[in-house]
Amino acid sequence: MKADLLVDAKGLACPMPIVRTKKGMDTLQSGQVLEIHVTDKGAKNDLSAWAKSAGHEMIDMVEEGDVLKFWIRKA
Fold first, then answer.
1. Which residues are in the UPF0033 domain (predicted)?
2. Please, are residues 49 and 18 in contact by the beta-carbon 8 Å criterion?
3. For the chain, which end, N or C, has fewer CB atoms within 10 Å of the first or last residue's CB respectively?
4. For the chain, what are the domain ranges?
5. Is the pLDDT confidence value at 1 over 90?
């Protein structure tokens, strides 16, 4: 999947993946896609809840080894 911006939050614990995601999202235009890579398993629920509460669209999430990859479309 093509993303407009990649945020690497691997090795960071909560709440840093959300903080990095929000900072990345703030730089995008509506409709653009942010890709986030995290290793904190708690981010699976945290990022989904954050995207929903902010009105963004969680497009996809895949797990590749220890890395969770998310794609979120900005509202």
1. 7-31
2. no
3. N
4. 5-73
5. no
CATH class of 5-73: alpha beta
Give, as one character, the DSSP assignment of residue 43: H
Question: Which residues face 5 on adjacent strands?
Answer: 34
Cα torsion at 43, 45, 48, 50 (round to 10°)? Answer: -80
CA distances from 3 to 15, 24, 37 (A): 23, 12, 12
Active-site option among 6, 13, 14, 54: 14
> Is 14 noted as a catalytic residue in this protein?
yes
Can you tell me the distance from the alpha carbon of 48 to that of 46, in angstroms, rounded to the nearest whole number? 6
